[in-house]
Structures are given as C-alpha cells and as structure tokens.
C-alpha cells in the first residue's frame, strides 16, 4: 500500500505477507518499497488502517498546507510565499519527528511559550476540532477501505 509521495521518494508504505510468503519475499518487498520512502510490515488485518492513515493521509496534509497558506494570505502574505512557508513548515516539523524520535507533543511543547503566539494558535485549533477531525478522517477512510474490500 504505497502512497503518492513515492513520486518524490518520500512515501510511507506498508505491506503484509501472504500465507505462502517467505522471509526472503518480505525482504524483497521491503527493499523495493524502501527505494521510494519508508516501508513497514504490518499484519494483513491492519492494511485498511494503513490505507486510512498513510494511503489517504497525503490528501489531509495537502488540505492542512492549503489552509495554512490561506491563513498567511489572509494576514497579508503573497500567495507564493505563504505556500512555500506552509509547505516547508510541514516538511520541517515532520522531519523533526522522524529525526529526533521525540513525541510530537514534546516537540509542540518546545515551541509553545506561556501566553505566547503558539498557544493562542493551538487554542484556536482545539476550539475548531482539528485533532478530532483528523482522527475522524483516518477512521472514515479506514472504514471505507473495509467496505470496498467486502464488495470486491
């Protein structure tokens, strides 16, 4: 289950072994998928969740980037600059999670000063239900993947 960021060698792929697959088969699949990003092995029962998270996830993040960019434009930045800053901000934050191994909450706390701008923005995100919406998106996409699998 690769995703579209494979096109820029930043994919997040998962695979499951079939009943007849060998360790060599799994190693080959992991090696192939790793050429275009990361590859993880999961039980077959988790593939629908992979679809809901990393299969559909790029679209969710594109919407986040677009919304951040729109916010920048709303506050006076030119579109091309707002989009560049928004995309790099997402890329940099993701790289921090991957490189440091720190929990995202810990990294968020390192940016959040008492009474500062970041906590004001986080409060607005919480009031708007960002976390709830993203979690529901993964659930909805997972459930749809299950439905599609039952109809095939």
Task: Characterise the protein shown here.
This protein is mainly α and 152 residues long. 67% of the residues lie in helices and 7% in strands. The chain is built from 7 helices and 2 strands. The protein has helices at residues 23-34, 47-55, 57-74, 79-100, 104-111, 117-128, 130-150, and strands at 11-15, 37-41. The chain has a two-stranded parallel sheet with strand order 1-2. α2 (47-55) crosses α7 (130-150) and α3 (57-74) packs across α4. It is elongated, with a radius of gyration of 18 Å. It starts with 10 loop residues before the first strand and ends with a helix. The model has no long low-confidence stretch (mean pLDDT 96).
Salient structural properties:
about 150 residues; mainly alpha; two-stranded parallel sheet; 7 helices
Outline the fold blueprint.
Layout: E1 11-15, H1 23-34, E2 37-41, H2 47-55, H3 57-74, H4 79-100, H5 104-111, H6 117-128, H7 130-150
Parallel strand pairs: 1-2
Helix pairs in contact: 2-7, 3-4
Q: Per DSSP, what share of the residues sits in E-state strands of 2 or more residues? A: 5-15%
- Number of DSSP-assigned strands: 2
Roughly what is the average pLDDT, rounded to an integer?
Answer: 96
Distance between the termini: 17 Å
Shape: elongated
Q: Indicate the multimeric state.
A: single chain
Structural class: mainly alpha
Helix-strand pattern, N to C?
Answer: EHEHHHHHH
**What count of helical segments does DSSP give?**
7
Order of neighbouring strands in the sheet with most strands = 1-2
Which regions have little confidence, pLDDT < 50, spanning 5+ residues?
none
Biggest pleated sheet: 2 strands, parallel
* Fraction of residues in helix: 55-70%
Radius of gyration: 18 Å
């Amino acid at each position: 289950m690769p995703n579209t960021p494979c096109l820029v060698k930043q994919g997040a792929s998962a695979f499951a072994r079939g009943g007849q697959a060998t360790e060599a088969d799994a190693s080959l699949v992991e090696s192939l998928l790793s050429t275009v990003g990361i590859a993880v092995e999961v039980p077959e029962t988790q593939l629908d969740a992979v679809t809901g998270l990393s299969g559909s996830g790029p679209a969710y993040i594109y919407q986040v980037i677009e919304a951040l960019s729109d916010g920048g434009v709303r506050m006076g930045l030119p579109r091309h600059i707002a989009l560049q800053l928004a995309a790099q901000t997402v890329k940099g934050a993701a790289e921090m999670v991957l490189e440091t191994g720190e929990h995202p909450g810990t990294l968020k706390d390192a940016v959040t000063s008492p009474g500062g701008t970041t906590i004001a923005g986080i409060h607005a995100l919480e009031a708007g239900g960002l976390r709830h919406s993203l979690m529901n998106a993964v659930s909805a996409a997972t459930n749809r993947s299950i439905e599609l699998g039952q109809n095939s």
